Each structure stands twice: as structure tokens, then as C-alpha cells.
Amino acid sequence: MTSTTRADLPKGRWRQRWPTIKKYLSYAFFILVAGLLIGLARNLDWKEIIGTLQSYQLRTLWLAGAAAFGSYLVYCFFDVLGKYYVRHGLPIRQIVPLTFVCYAFNLNLSAWVGGIALRYRLYSRLGVKPAQVTRVFTLSLLTNWLGYMALAGVIFTFADIRPPPEWEIGGMTLHIIGFSLMAVSVTYLLLCGFSKRRSWAIRGHEVELPSLRLAVIQILLGAANWSLMATVIYFMLLEKISYPEVLAVLMVSSIAGVISHVPAGLGVIEAVFVGLLGSQMSHPSIIAGLIGYRVIYFLVPLVFATIIYVVLEARAKKLRRTAAAQNGATS
What we know:
With 331 residues, the chain is an all-alpha fold. The protein has eleven helices and two strands. A two-stranded antiparallel ribbon has the order 1-2.
């Protein structure tokens, strides 16, 4: 006959109550996501969005949509890299829709919802451990910004970009930033290729350097994703601005909020594009193109991601019921 200590009672009660607590937490999370989506929809000017899209030819929308699809597909392979980095057993066919949902929600509803919360929720339901999810997320984040640093580093260093005087930065500052970004990218590659120490413990989390081959793929995938984003904008600006210029301006817009004081009343991307390309294209045309870009690259994928998310939730619920029924039959 075994005796139960007082220390064992709280643990037993916690284990009994955890399924119920987990269920209510799932409901709360689902309501939170739904609320964020409704809030986003209410804040959009749908008349302006529809009017902007109606002004485009079908060819332009198809080309921009294809570029956006390519960008999302490339981003999904950030987490495929994470599979080989972490060595979890999920097949690629499960990783791709999961990552697509996370990316679309990340762009529209912040990194806390899409990048972190949804990743933990969806991955954990498929049996991936929280520590592994953290490492996958970290690798994905690094892949995105390593690609940016390598691509922007080359552009800022060698391209002749002249910001407007009111930005309080000049071409020389951009050259210095570009050289610094390239230096960071090269340093990362050197560490991955030649560092004898391969891992560090930071706040209880182990950080392990990937192989040089994986690091190179990281930079290539990250750069490809940014390049495809610029391709969407290029088509939505009706191909009136050369692609290299569009790419360069997109790179600048990603750091403009940090290194300059953008004019009030405009978003960061809009302010940068108007400031740098306003002499080549009318301001209303630039703004219309960027509205179209936001619709094609942000809102349309969010619609599909929401549908996929609901399907993933329903599938997970079905799998839990099947598992519960099998456990009941065998007990």
C-alpha cells in the first residue's frame, strides 16, 4: 500500500485539471485571434482598396500575385530549414501550411501573434517540443534578417542612393550602414564555417551554430524573399520604376523608421517611396501602388491563412477525439 504525501496532491490535482484549463486557453486564444481579425477589418478603408484594385489590369494583378505566392513559398522554407536544424520529425507537407499561416498573421497582426504564439500553438499540437519551436523561430528570424543584411549591405554600399535632405542622413551614412551589414553577414558565415565552439547557453536556452552550408542557404532564402517582395511592388507600380530602384527603396524603407524622421501622416514605406521616387512618378500613383501591394501581399494571404488556420484547428480537434477514442478502447 502506497502513501500519498502532501507534495504529491497539488501535482495530481494539476494534472487532472490541466486538460480543462488547456481547453479554455484554446478557446481564449481562438477568440483573441478572431477579435484581432475583426478589428483589422473594421479599420480598413474597403472602398479605397476596391477602387485601387479595379484600376489595375488583370495581368498586373496576376503577376503581382505570383510574386507574392513565390515570396510566401520561400518564407515557408525558412521553417523547413528549421526542421533540419532542430531535427524534428514533421514532414514538409505539414510545415508549409503551418508556416504560411504564421507569416500571414505575423505581417498583419504583429510578430507576437503570428511569429510566436501561433507557432507554439500549431507546432506543439503536432508534437514538437517548446524548446524546438523556440529554435525554429529563432532560425527563421535570423534567416529573414541575414538575407536582408546581405542584400541591403550590397545595395547601400555600391548603389547611389540619395535620401531627401529632411531625413538628416546622407549617402555616406547609407554606405557606412551597408558596409556594416555586409560585415555582419560575412562574420556570421565565418563563425558557422570555422568556429570551434558550436553552441552557447543564453538564459537557459541553447544556441547552436548551423553548418556553413545551412548558413549560406539561410542568406540566399532571406535575400530571395526580400527580392520577391520588391517584385510585388514593382508590378503594382506598373513597371514604371526600374526593379533595382524599387528593391533599393524597399531596403531603405525597412530601416527608415530608425535612422530618419519620416513625414507625419504617411506610413514608413509610403514616405520613403514618395521621398525617393516622387520625381519619377506622381505621388497619388505611388500611394495607389503601395495600397495595392498591401492588399496583394498582406490582406489576400491573410484571408487564405485564416481559412487554413480554421482547417488546422478542426483537424487537430478531430485527431484528439480519435486518440481519446483509441485510448478508451484499449483501457
